[in-house]
Design brief:
The protein is mainly alpha-helical. 48% of the residues lie in helices and 11% in strands.
Length: 185
């Protein structure tokens, strides 16, 4: 009986969305019912539809803690990369004041923050965060050091930045270029 209820509610929510109608009540029933099962069942079987419904549920403030846990547990990514309410593993705010959040917890960028590590992240994001030559970052951040020492300092700082971001694949390195993983940041 519960399985049928959840399936019917899911179909109803998708149908209402497809026709541009208010899906809020159907989403509330869907996620309230699914929350009883935890993050493992039953919504994990619908990875093509449920992430879109999750994004809408977050926008409508429906079962937020359950929906965020479901997204994290199943590793879903949003259809729209600019989704503000999505529980991104890493959030970087550059406009105004620099802020960094890892798994929804703010990284302290105060007096004891690892300055060179944060400088590397800032430099990477300021130059586009995609296909940035490592040499460009090295020349910017370690201009006074000799080439070998600068490269070694860069490698150590990159390692520390990856540890700070918790996700080792948050920064992708390939053929001398770096980029932020857009599916995580």
């Amino acid at each position: 009986m519960r399985r049928t209820f959840t399936s019917l509610t899911r179909v109803e929510a998708v149908s209402l969305l497809a026709h541009g109608e208010d899906a809020h009540p159907a989403l509330k029933r869907l996620f309230s019912g699914a929350a009883q099962y935890g993050t493992g069942l039953p919504l994990r079987f619908f990875p093509t539809v449920i992430p879109r419904l999750c994004a809408l549920a977050l926008q409508c403030n429906i079962e937020v803690s359950y929906v965020r846990a479901l997204i994290r547990t199943l590793g879903w990514r949003p259809e729209d990369a600019s989704a503000q309410c999505w529980p991104w593993p890493i959030r970087i705010y550059l406009f105004g004041r620099f802020e960094l959040y890892v798994n929804d917890e703010r990284v302290n960028c105060g007096a004891r923050a690892p300055r060179k590590v944060l400088s590397l992240l800032k430099a990477l994001t300021c130059v586009g965060a995609q296909n940035v030559r490592d040499r460009r970052l090295i020349d910017t951040l370690w201009s006074e050091d000799e080439a070998d020492a600068a490269k070694a300092a860069f490698n150590i700082t990159l390692h520390r930045l990856r540890k700070l971001l918790v996700q080792s694949d948050a920064i992708e390195v390939k053929d001398g270029t770096l980029q932020l993983n857009a599916e995580m940041c």
